[in-house]
Write a structure and sequence with these properties.
alpha+beta, mini-chromosome maintenance (MCM) complex, domain 2, 2 domains, three-stranded antiparallel β-sheet, binds zinc ion
Length: about 120
């Protein structure tokens, strides 16, 4: 094989490798994270953290869930203790907002966080 051709192949391989590394480095860390709403042990809904929104969960017993700037928070609720509201915003895998009186859990799944967490569930 002549040297010029060899060099071209190496150059192409190098470029491919470089593109692959760039892809891994630039991949947005928070992408794919979800706020998963569970009530009474049943998954009710899941919302991507990448989209700002406000949803009211429940009727008589309600929690208002706000997703903003990649984080989820219960901003208002008519439960007795307001622990869920005081929890504030969560955005990392495994973090959760719990409303005991309403038996409601908002849990973060996916996105950034420990890769070795196998205990969810
Ligand atoms: Zn609450």
């Amino acid at each position: 094989m002549d040297k010029k051709r060899m060099r071209d192949i190496l150059l192409a391989a190098g470029l491919l490798l470089f593109a692959g590394i760039l892809y891994l480095l630039l991949r947005p860390g928070g992408e794919g994270a979800w706020a998963v709403v569970t009530a009474d042990g049943q998954e009710m809904a899941r919302y991507p953290l990448s989209e700002d929104r406000q949803v009211t969960i429940g009727e008589a017993d309600y929690n208002i869930l706000e997703i903003k700037d990649g984080a989820a928070a219960v901003i208002e609720a008519n439960c007795g203790d307001h622990t869920c509201v005081r929890t504030g915003a969560v955005s990392r895998e495994g973090e959760a907002i719990v409303c005991l009186p309403h038996r409601l859990i908002v849990r973060i799944e996916g996105g950034e966080g420990p890769l070795f967490d196998a205990s969810v569930g």
